[in-house]
Structures are given as structure tokens and as C-alpha cells.
Design a protein that fits this description.
Layout lengths: L22 H12 L10 H8 L4 H6 L3 H24 L5 H18 L3 H9 L5 H26 L8 H17 L1 H8 L6 H16 L2 H5 L5
Length: 223
């Protein structure tokens, strides 16, 4: 079989265009569209309504407040991420290849949703409600998958024992920062950090950190 890194993670069906969606779905899509260019604190109820082409009252009808809409968006993106992580679990390949697929899932989701963690922290986990519990359940499922992979790798002598919870969160942070702090990367490296070549190197660097090979990876200059 070809290397697992060449295998595409199964994606969810393409999301409908905001202009074709209706009702609750249109509002979720409009909010996600607004979040591509602005952090959640800068988005207004009227802006989301304008993108969706509806009266702001419709947001109140379906969600109540804008914060409730953003919490629902966070849950939806969490489901997207979980679907991609679940796809990795069934892939056959080396530990490195499967870890790289997990990193790729993070990078794909955060590319499309660069302010995801701001929404999660500010509008979901700050609450103790069904949205928070739903997202936490999805997160823990991905952590459990990673724990199984770590135990397999340790048994095979491919890596040292690591806390799956910490590793999952740390990997997510490295991947999200790649997009949320794009100007920092551009300033440091002086290039298009979203180029496929740079993303590949960044992904390999993260895997080398996880597997304890950072010295080897660091000896290769980023291009």
C-alpha cells in the first residue's frame, strides 16, 4: 500500500453556498464566512445577517444572541475536526505517517477557521451547557484515538511515552498559530508561509518534535 501520508483524509460533503442555504444553516455559514477574516469579538449580529441576506431578527429567532450562534459554530467546526481525526484512525501506516495525517487534519481545519480556538474559549467552554459538553465529548474521542496510537508507538519503540491530552492540545496550538499568526511567520521567514512546500516542512517539524527528532529537523533550514 502507498504511504499513508499520500492518502487523503475523508472529507465531509462540501458545505452549501451561503446564498443557497436557508434558515439556521444560512446563519451558521454566514458566521463562518465572517470568521475567516475577523476574530469573533469584531463580528456583529448585523454583519452576519447581512452576509446571509436576512433580517437580524432571524438570528434571534434561531439562536437568541450572537454569542449563541458563535457557540453553535464552534460545535459545528469541532464536528468537522472530529470527522477528520476519526478518518485517520482507520488508516494503515507507520506511526509517523498517521501522526502527520492528524497534523494535516488540524492544518486543514484551522486554515478554513483561523479563529476557531477564540470561539471555543470565549463562547463555548466558558459555559456549562449542551454545546460545551458536546464539543468536549468530541475532543476526548480524538484524545483517546491519539492515546491508542501513542501506546502502539511506545510498544514498538518508535517514541517515548507522552500524555495524549497534552500532546493533542500542544499540536492543535502549533497548527492554529500557523494561521492565526500568519504575519509573524511571514515576517520571520520572509516568504509565503501558506505555500505547500513550507506547510510540508512545518508539518514535518511538528512530527519530529513529537517523535524526539527535533535536532535532526532543526538542522534542515526552512525554505
Amino acid at each position: 500500500m502507498a504511504g499513508a501520508t499520500k492518502r487523503k483524509i475523508r472529507r465531509a460533503p462540501g458545505r452549501p453556498d451561503v446564498n443557497r442555504a436557508v434558515g439556521r444553516e444560512a446563519l451558521l455559514l454566514a458566521a463562518r464566512q465572517a470568521l475567516k477574516t475577523k476574530p469573533p469579538g469584531e463580528i456583529t449580529l448585523h454583519e452576519v445577517a447581512s452576509i446571509a441576506g436576512v433580517d437580524p431578527a432571524l438570528i434571534r429567532y434561531y439562536f437568541g444572541q450572537l454569542s449563541d450562534l458563535l457557540a453553535a459554530v464552534a460545535v459545528e467546526i469541532s464536528r468537522d475536526l472530529r470527522e477528520r481525526m476519526a478518518s485517520v484512525k482507520g488508516v494503515q501506516g507507520s506511526v509517523r505517517e498517521r501522526l502527520k495525517l492528524r497534523v494535516g487534519a488540524f492544518l486543514d481545519v484551522f486554515h478554513d477557521n483561523p479563529h476557531y480556538h477564540q470561539i471555543v474559549v470565549g463562547y463555548m467552554y466558558a459555559r456549562d451547557d449542551a454545546n460545551a459538553k458536546s464539543a468536549l465529548k468530541l475532543l476526548l474521542q480524538s484524545v483517546d484515538d491519539l492515546d491508542e496510537l501513542i501506546k502502539e508507538a511506545v510498544k514498538a519503540g518508535e517514541m517515548e511515552p507522552l500524555d495524549a491530552r497534552l500532546l493533542h492540545v500542544a499540536t492543535a496550538a502549533l497548527c492554529e498559530f500557523f494561521f492565526s499568526a500568519k504575519p509573524v511567520f511571514s515576517a520571520i521567514f520572509g516568504l509565503n508561509v501558506e505555500s505547500p512546500a513550507f506547510r510540508e516542512q512545518y508539518s514535518d517539524f511538528i512530527i519530529d518534535l513529537i517523535l524526539g527528532n527535533a535536532r535532526r529537523s532543526g538542522s534542515r533550514a526552512f525554505r
